[in-house]
Automatic annotation (TrEMBL):
Keyword Translocase: no
Enzyme class, broadest EC rank: oxidoreductase
Origin species: Halotia branconii CENA392
Protein name: FMN dependent NADH:quinone oxidoreductase
Organism ancestry: Bacteria, Bacillati, Cyanobacteriota, Cyanophyceae, Nostocales
Record text on cofactor binding: Binds 1 FMN per subunit.
GO MF, one annotated term: electron transfer activity
Gene: azoR
Keyword Cytoplasm tagged: no
Superkingdom of origin organism: Bacteria
Coiled coil residues, start to end: none
A Pfam short name: Flavodoxin_2
Binding site residues for FMN: 10, 16-18, 96-99
PANTHER family in the record: FMN-DEPENDENT NADH-AZOREDUCTASE 1, FMN-DEPENDENT NADH:QUINONE OXIDOREDUCTASE
């Protein structure tokens, strides 16, 4: 039995394509793995706060030196880190915003990339501590990014996600991008069909 962490980040509810695709993945996964435990978090319902100066000071204070106030400041971050570390596999749905990720998912990353918890520094070298898990990102984008498209090379979303999670030691990263969702019905159907067929493939091979 595996533990799955499923997080949606679109500020949109029922109209969100990334949520819908992630749900399709999870429903198909549950059909195949009914005993897996799924933890669900919705960043729309429970927004993640931005880090503050006091939070940063607390995050870089050794655990034994934390004051009760500092520990309190880190409480939600600790909860997010515990949840992330406990998962064998993560399914994150993330829309593209301004060629990168929405600020709520960036805030989530800032809360889980924690020294001593998800990475450590030894002799000037960073070592990720979130090893051995699989992470799948299902993204939704308004336009297309393939070779020859006007926005070829503008995708800062996949690198932003890839490097943050690699930094924490995740080596098994998968991306399913639904492109062209705001380019008319035909392009939207094509983008969704392609993403859905990749979802079906990955459900059987992940
Ligand atoms: C604030 C905002 C910024 C966006 N920026 C981009 C962008 O840079 N590139 C892009 O391809 N689509 C962009 N889009 C379109 C969304 O990625 C697209 O509508 C996607 O389906 C949103 O995900 P959701 O349906 O899960 O909410 C943007 C949408 C919004 C609301």
């Amino acid at each position: 039995m595996a533990s799955i962490l499923h997080i949606d980040s679109s500020p949109r509810g029922d109209r969100s394509k990334s949520r819908k695709l992630a749900k399709e993945f999870i429903v198909a996964w549950q059909d195949l793995h009914p005993d897996d435990a799924i933890a669900y978090r919705d960043l729309r319902q429970t927004p993640v706060p931005h880090v503050t100066e006091d939070w940063i000071a607390a995050a870089f204070t050794p655990p034994k030196a934390l004051t009760p106030e500092m520990a309190e400041l880190l409480k939600f971050s600790d909860e997010l880190v515990d949840e992330f570390l406990a998962a064998d596999r993560c399914v994150f749905s993330v829309p593209m915003y301004n060629f990168s990720i929405p600020s709520n998912f960036k805030a989530y990353i800032d809360q889980v990339v924690r020294v001593g918890r998800t990475f450590t520094e030894e002799d000037g070298q960073v070592k990720g501590l979130a090893n051995g898990k699989k992470v799948l990102f299902i993204t939704s984008r308004g336009v297309e990014y393939g070779a020859g498209s006007p926005y070829e090379g503008w995708d800062c979303q996949e690198p932003a996600l890839r490097y943050a999670f690699q930094f924490m030691g995740v080596t098994d990263l998968q991306f399913i991008h639904a492109n062209g969702l705001d380019m008319g019905d035909e392009a939207q159907k094509r983008g969704l069909d392609e993403a859905q067929s990749k979802i079906q493939e990955l459900v059987n091979s992940w």
